[in-house]
Amino acid sequence: MHCYRYITVQRRRHELQSTNDSSSFTPVLLPQTSSCVLRGSGATVLWVPAGGHGISRSHRGPPQRYRHQTRSSHAPSHGRGRGRRRCVRRRPYELQKIAADMFGMEAALYVPTGTMSNLIAVMVHCRERGDEMIVGDLSHIHVYEQGGSAQLAGVHSATVTTLSDGTFDLDQLISKIRHGYPDPHYPRSRLVCVENTHNIQGGRVLPLSFLQELRSVADNFGLTVHMDGARVMNAAVALGVQPSAILQHCHSVSVCLSKGLGAPVGTVLGGSKDFIQRAVRARKALGGGMRQSGVLAAAGKIALSDMIGRMKEDHRNTKSFAQALLQCDPPMYQVDLTTVESNILRFRLRDAHMSPAEFCERMAGIDEEEVKALGQGVQVLMFPHVGGTVRAVWHLGISEEDTQLAIQKAHFVAHQHKLKSIRAA
Ligand SMILES: Cc1ncc(COP(=O)(O)O)c(C=O)c1O
């Protein structure tokens, strides 16, 4: 029988183990599936993260009492809830309070996704149509969010060149600020966005000195600073500091509870009280004000309380995989170890005869030769990435043992490729 293992960017196996969490719904692991179960108060909620339909069905159907508490999106709901339902609704507030304290910010807001969270931040910071934000040209906000800030918020973007460490040149930033405003030819520069860790640049951690200097430039020119901190907890772990030590330099932050933190869903947006009050309105307008968020927040609380510490493991596994690629015989992989700082690895293939897409396909596929050589089939999901690189990401559910299997597979693929080239020559 083949054994299938996954290292994956898109398909994740979420493991959320039982804890002493004070909420009455406790996520537990459903092995080998993409599902997670929330248990408590006599109800069992099957939670299907990818492609699921939001909230939740029980195996046997939740008790009537629970249905009333959660109010699925199909249930009629009029006016503000009372009684039991309130205890479920209260829970996002606990999560938001925990998050705000952790971020060192006045308030926080639970939203469905990182993309929506970033968009809300842009909408709140840039209040007038035609306001401008300055972003890195390789930032997630600029590259992967469909220009939502322009489409939906009427906000114009100017870009600065993203450097290989995820920062940008502050003189270039200053040159992009619209010093001509209020001349009617120009938009008004309001906001600068940073990303930490930097996704496209391979999980690079922004240096605290950069953030400090950036904030001082922003203060000088009356700009606000938003951090797309989808993976800022990885940055905090990599630097060995509290998240608030990073976030003290920002006016707002968006932190994903999924990704490395392993919650099935959710992002928390942090900022000042006034910022969050306005964010609540923007979230509602974008359709993100979910009645069901109390149940989802139970997993989010565990993500913040229990999952940050274990990120070290992801960073360690990422590094050992990177080192093993360099030691591969035959030499097929190019890695700059100095750039491996968190849970994302980008590497190149030395042989132009194998493209990143072919390589990823090979890592994901299993053939008989492999089963014979390794004693089992190992399926590793990676991603052909920008600039001819391959991207691999470690997260909850990818163990040291999985990493060793992925190393074996990468070495096997290199070996097989060499034999093929020899035969073809
Ligand atoms: C840096 C960064 N920001 C924002 C997002 C968007 O998050 P979501 O997929 O929850 O919308 C991602 C997703 O990969 C990301 O990597």
Beta percentage is 15-25%
CATH level-3 fold name of the largest domain: Aspartate Aminotransferase, domain 2
Q: How many structural units, i.e. domains?
A: 3
**How are helices and strands ordered from N to C?**
EEEHHEHEHHEHEHEHHEEHHHEEHHEEH
> What is the topology, as strand order, of the major beta sheet?
4-10-9-8-7-5-6
Identify the bound ligands.
pyridoxal-5'-phosphate
CATH superfamily of the largest domain: Type I PLP-dependent aspartate aminotransferase-like (Major domain)
Overall shape: it is globular
Q: Multimeric state of these chains?
A: single chain
CATH class annotation of the largest domain: Alpha Beta
Task: Give the low-pLDDT segments.
Answer: 1-88
Q: Radius of gyration, Cα only, in angstroms?
A: 23 Å
Please give the count of helices: 15
In this structure, how is the largest beta sheet organized? 7 strands, mixed
The CATH architecture of the largest domain can be named as 3-Layer(aba) Sandwich
Q: Tell me the structural class.
A: alpha/beta
Mean pLDDT: 83
Query: Distance between the terminal alpha carbons, to the nearest Å?
Result: 35 Å
Helix coverage percent: 25-40%
What is the total tally of β strands? 14
